[in-house]
Amino acid sequence: MNHLTEEQLIEHYYGESAKSMRIEHHLRECNRCAETYATLRSDLDAIAPIMAPARDAGHGEQVWRSIRNFVPVYEQKQQGLWQRFGSLRGLNVATACVFLIAVAFFAGRQWDIYQRPPQIQTAANNGTRQPIVLVVLGDHLGRSERFLVALRHGDPGESTALVKAEAQDLLSANRLYRESAIKSGDRAFAAALDRLERVLVEIANEPDDASAARLAELQKELNTDGLLFEVRVLRSHVQDEQEEQQPAAVRTLGVLI
Amino acid sequence: MEENEHSIIRAVLSGDKEAYGTLVLRYSHAIFRVAFRITGDEADAEDVVQEAFLLGYRKLESFESRAKFSTWIYRIAVNCALNLKNKRKPDAAYQIVDDAEATQHQLQVADTAASPERLLLSREIEALQVRAMQELTAIERTAFVLRHMEARTTAEIAATLQIAPNAAKQAVFRAVQKLRRSLAPLRVNA
């Protein structure tokens, strides 16, 4: 048997060699290969697994809370087309006719909406943020605004742990909105959410026993006043968008992935 | 457990959205761990966790009842992490550990005698390992993490990354070769 290659030795180290017995035998016989293998083993043994930062027991709950508003309920996909068609047989002819007229009317309305010229786009609505739920986004910005206001006024009676918990909660949702904004190409919106995220990250990572004075100091350092203004402007844009899209028959309930 | 998972999935597909939360709770830690190992960044790993579970929910109808949900969601997460890693510049995600404060991204090294010299050496080793991992391509790093740290077989790595088994094997080999070259100075110090 020739000397073993590095590939064979690596395969052997991970226990995936098809000729394991022969390789073992060769390593007992050949000093050169045994030495090479010993060095390889020592190198690989020295690479310890990367330890992920600890997550508390509530991590799963937090993840679920952050995504549950973005997932639709699987209810209309229960019946196949043929099943649905089959269920029509249970209706009498008159009901079926009324149903068909209603479908035709609805299709006509949709066609009319589809034929309308596109609306003029504004800075806040580049037509690319459609997949973001406007209602939920408005709520998020509203919550963020209240959070920044509370931080600004620094109520000494309020526990730092509560402020931190709120920041952590907002952070998860904010990440999703930011990712969605990036994917839909709305850079300005993504940048604003990114700035908000930095503030949330800082506060979320403060120790539990951080003093109110520390939060006030942080607030100054991070210029949360400027951010508060920005969040207010964004929220008003989102409200405008909501009002503009009010007549739309369907509102998307999901984010882009 | 598997039977239980399949009944949870059936419930979700029948309209019980909240049932999916049980699966998120069950696997969020494992998904975060592998996401962190691939991305090397805590915030990115959190993004991957969210994205993986969102995608998992959206694709739940395509989940085959013969499969295990844990394996399925794990594969989705690995691919999300790999995609994210591919988008990032090579030097953006992993910080070089030069100071004692940057503890989050350090690799853990067994250290029985905590003398100052020993601590210093450990820190040097950690920094070198972090840098060595950083030099790998996204696919090499992912394949190596799955093989070396997650104890996945070549066949599993290939299935997860949707590549041929030989390509998966080669990615691990290349990663090992590069790491050994980068970590060669340790042989003298250790």
Describe it:
By secondary structure, chain A is mainly α. Chain A has eleven helices and no strands. By secondary structure, chain B is mainly alpha-helical. Chain B contains eight helices and no strands. Chain B is elongated and about 60 Å long. About 12% of the residues of chain B have low confidence.
What labels describe this entry?
heterodimer, A: mainly alpha, disordered C terminus, B: 190 residues, mainly alpha
Helix content of chain A: 55-70%
Low-confidence stretches of chain A: 117-129, 248-257
The helix/strand order of chain A is HHHHHHHHHHH
Number of strands of chain A: 0
Please give the alpha-carbon distance between the first and last residues of chain A: 53 Å
Average pLDDT score of chain A? 75
Largest sheet of chain A: none
Q: Which two chains have the most extensive interface, and how many residues on each?
A: A-B, 43 and 59 residues
Structural class of chain A: mainly alpha
Please give the structural blueprint:
The complex is a heterodimer of chains A (257) and B (190).
Chain A: H1 6-13, H2 20-29, H3 31-46, H4 59-68, H5 81-88, H6 93-115, H7 134-153, H8 160-183, H9 187-204, H10 212-221, H11 224-245
Chain B: H1 2-13, H2 19-39, H3 42-58, H4 69-87, H5 116-134, H6 138-149, H7 154-161, H8 165-189
Helix pairs in contact in B: 1-2, 2-3, 2-4, 3-4, 5-8, 6-8, 7-8
Brief write-up:
With 257 residues, chain A is mostly helical. Chain A has 11 helices and no strands.
